[in-house]
Amino acid sequence: MRSLRAVKVFALTLMVVLILGTVGVNAQRIPREETLYIAGQQWGPPTNFNPFGKGAIAWPVANNSLYVYETLYAFNLITGEMDPVLAEKYEWIDNDMVMRLTLHEGTRWQDGEPLTAEDVEYTLKLGKKYPLNFAPWWNYVLDVRAVDDRTIDIIIDPEKPHRTLVMQDLGNIYILPKHIWEPIEAAEGTIQDNPNLEPVGSGPYKLYNYNPQQITIIRDDNYWGAPYFGTPAPKYIAHPIFKSNDAGNLAFERGQIDMSQQFVPEVWKMWEDKGLPVGTWFKEEPYYMPASTPSIYLNIHRPGLDNPLVRRAIAYSIDYAKIAETAMSRYSEPARSSLIIPYGVPEQRYFNEENVKKYGWEYNPQKAIDILENELGCTKGSDGIYVLPDGTRLGPWKAECPYGWTDWMTSLEVVAASAREVGIDIRTEYPDAPVWTEHHQSGDFDIIMYTPAGGQGPALPWSRFREVMDDRDVPPIGQTAYRNFNRYSHPRVPELLDRAAYTTDEAELKAIYEELDRIYMEDVPLIVLEYRPWEFYEFNETYWKGFPTADNPTAPPQHHRAGVQILYVIEPAK
């Protein structure tokens, strides 16, 4: 009888063959030697290429991939700086209350129309009109004005002069062509509902074709940025749509994927044991740059989970070291009870060890049981699950993340098993990514995994505290929210965040973050599970070579934002 492992390998191989069948068909039209195949950006059939659309936005538009649409600036993970894209430069004028931006000469849209300051003003002002993900940017900006075709003034609110956040968000906001979107807005009354199936951007690639198995983009050889940035090496970039990490990783190992943002368990074995031309940013552990905090949001409005002591008991029950070893495959240290990453990134200077020891938690199942029995007065039912004095059973609560995100799935299995060991009933559920997106944005969940402020930027850790704890501009449960998915609220948080945004005193800033962290640890609206790289970055040099590494840092190890520079430094391997 065929072994279970053999059956699994056969099934994965069949899955890859079926998925890459489209690649084989397309190979006649997109030569392999001219095509960069990537993975890890798209997990379901593409239905929406609207940069500000609702629900699941498809690659290459999602997540600030600067292929089709572009931003004014792009955060560079190596330098920590904002690199110019559409903008050539900026300066502060009028007592540092006005940011004056100057566009590069020759910026234009892919349909040949010029890209001007009017497009920038139009796009930025959409955040005042609609509940877009950058609407909070307008908490710190009074106005945006096109001075002439190439100059834009951004007038800062003198009462909220958060210049760093204003600059950071200029690296997150895609600029749209006014001549296309203004008629759509007039006809539909919004810009969010149009699926934008024929996107026109300003970037170096255009949408070529797409179907449920693959999305392909083609180089725009009339790209405005060629005089400044050069010409990307791949003529085509193709993204096969896999059903799971396992299928994508198998294709990557075989050289059918050139660059991946998927989680690869024990990636070092590909070159140490198998001798494959595979690499990551670092040659040795931790292999990737730590940068983000995948976490579980607890629905503080569900019976039982609305009690902070119950949430604290869950936090004490979780085996963080096991998550780091199994789910994160040694790519992370065990998570601490803080919203501040304690190592490897600039924000670590705000981490307070004594604060965490006094107010936080760690893996301690007995402490979880003590909270349940002695502080909450719970009694254990015949099924081994605790019940609150008012009769509320602690579960079953669903903990969910998208199907196929194997590292997150493993993390949630550890969470569920750890909780059950102390008498809390948590069960895992893995919907498709679009369903998961709808659940966390609408607030329709018990426990859901997500990465708050899911990258690095000049405004951290401020932006992570805001995403988790600030309820301003967050719509009620049932409506679409882009942060604070469990609608947590605390009266001190807005004032503390505002003070942190405006102060230039480093000692004061440290004290503010310590207080925010104490509030977080006391109320436990969210539990950090991992320190994940901003993006997993691995490459296979079978068809393309010259990928940047820590030893050859020609571009940052990013798939988004300034990571577009990778396309300009790689070259065909044959």
Summarize this structure briefly.
The protein is an alpha+beta fold and 574 residues long. Helix content is 30%, strand content 17%. The longest helix has 23 residues, at 4-26.
Q: What can you see in these coordinates?
A:
This protein has 574 residues and is of the alpha+beta class. Helix content is 30%, strand content 17%. The chain contains 17 helices and 24 strands. A seven-stranded mixed beta sheet has the order 8-9-10-1-11-22-12, with helices on one face. A five-stranded mixed beta sheet has the order 18-17-19-14-20, sandwiched between helices. The protein has a four-stranded antiparallel beta sheet with strand order 4-5-7-6, covered by helices on one side. α1 (4-26) packs across α6 (245-253) and α15 (493-502) runs antiparallel to α16. The protein is globular and about 70 Å long. The model is unreliable at 1-28 (pLDDT under 50).
User: How many DSSP E strands?
Assistant: 24
Oligomer: single chain
Shape: globular
Low-confidence sequence ranges: 1-28
What's the gyration radius in Å?
24 Å
Count up the helices.
Answer: 17
- Strand order in the sheet with the most strands: 8-9-10-1-11-22-12
**Helix vs. strand class:** alpha+beta
Main sheet characteristics = 7 strands, mixed
Q: On the 0-100 scale, what is the average pLDDT?
A: 92
Bin the helical content. 25-40%
End-to-end Cα distance, whole Å, is 42 Å
Estimate what percentage of residues fall within beta strands: 15-25%
